[in-house]
Design goal:
This protein is of the alpha+beta class. The protein contains 6 helices and 12 strands. 22% of the residues lie in helices and 35% in strands. A 12-stranded mixed β-sheet has the order 7-8-9-10-11-1-2-3-4-5-6-12, covered by helices on one side. It is globular, with a radius of gyration of 22 Å. The two termini are 32 Å apart. The model is unreliable at 1-31 and 260-277 (pLDDT under 50).
Length: 277
């Protein structure tokens, strides 16, 4: 679709040039067409519909497979992948079981505490947490650098999180490949990140998102694929805690980077993926 648009633009320029060359001297040029709006209504409609569907769900579960590019020693990017099994119960419960190319991890939030557990290493960190998922996500990022690539799907108002910094949004077209269903493709720029999203045309659920930081000279790509969506279903008992974590060795709930404190550092904008080092 993007290539097709580029070819159409190139063709239109050639046609315009030919028409200009055949125009009689002194004939006034035809008025230029109005520029496309920075925020296309169709794109905003798709984003708002998806946000509304997600925000209305009292419980949800899904699988998120995230891929991150990171420079290799030779220069070309390597790709690292994680797989997260996510269960959410609004307004104050979250469970994330994550496996991937690095160590496996588990995260639990029960409205009072947040727990980060490394099952192979038998290490656990526990900290007091705010009473809502949104506030907890920010607290986890500020205090320990914890950020989930699917954050924009579980906050209370996904569209509201990107609206304030929204600079550009346009509708690309439809795909019948991603997610095994027909999806609407939209792209937007917000707070220094460019995001392309595939959203189910019927169910309005995210199927895939790709993000690039505009100031990143290497244009490294971050991608999340969503599957196995279940909204407003029954939540099994014990999803938001781990009996193994109770017996694990306690470590501080702190940022792994020994650099300056994270106080005052803003949470990444919705749709962003964490920067790789």
């Amino acid at each position: 679709m993007i290539v097709a648009r580029a070819l159409l633009v190139a063709l239109s320029l050639l046609v315009a040039a030919g028409a200009s060359a055949q125009q009689a001297p002194g004939t006034p040029a035809a008025p230029a067409s109005a520029p496309a709006p920075a925020l296309e209504p169709k794109a905003i409609e798709v984003l708002k519909a998806s946000s509304g569907r997600l925000a209305a769900a009292r419980t949800m579960s899904f699988t998120a497979v995230a891929s991150y590019e990171s420079p290799s020693r030779l220069g070309p990017a390597l790709v690292y992948t994680t797989r997260s099994l996510v269960t959410l119960q609004r307004p104050d419960k979250l469970g994330v079981i994550q496996t991937g190319d690095g160590p496996a991890s588990e995260f639990y939030y029960n409205g009072k505490t947040m727990t980060a557990f490394m099952p192979a290493e038998k290490l656990v960190a526990v900290a007091d947490a705010p009473p809502t998922v949104d506030a907890m996500l920010e607290a986890a990022y500020q205090s320990a650098g914890i950020y989930f690539p699917f954050t924009d799907a579980i906050v209370a108002d996904p569209y509201g999180d990107i609206a304030n910094g929204l600079e550009l949004a346009f509708y690309v077209g439809q795909s019948r490949v991603v997610g095994g269903t027909t999806t609407d493709i939209v792209a937007y720029a917000s707070d220094g990140v460019f995001v392309q999203m595939w959203i189910g045309a019927r169910d309005k659920l995210p199927r895939m998102a790709r993000a690039v930081f505009q100031k990143d000279p290497m244009r490294l790509r971050h991608q999340v694929e969503f599957s196995s969506w279940k909204l407003d279903g029954a939540v099994p008992a014990g999803v938001f805690a781990s009996s193994r974590a109770v017996a694990a060795k306690r470590i501080p709930f702190a940022h792994p980077d020994p650099g300056p404190p994270m106080v005052g550092t803003p949470l990444p904008a919705a749709g962003e993926a964490p920067k790789t080092k």
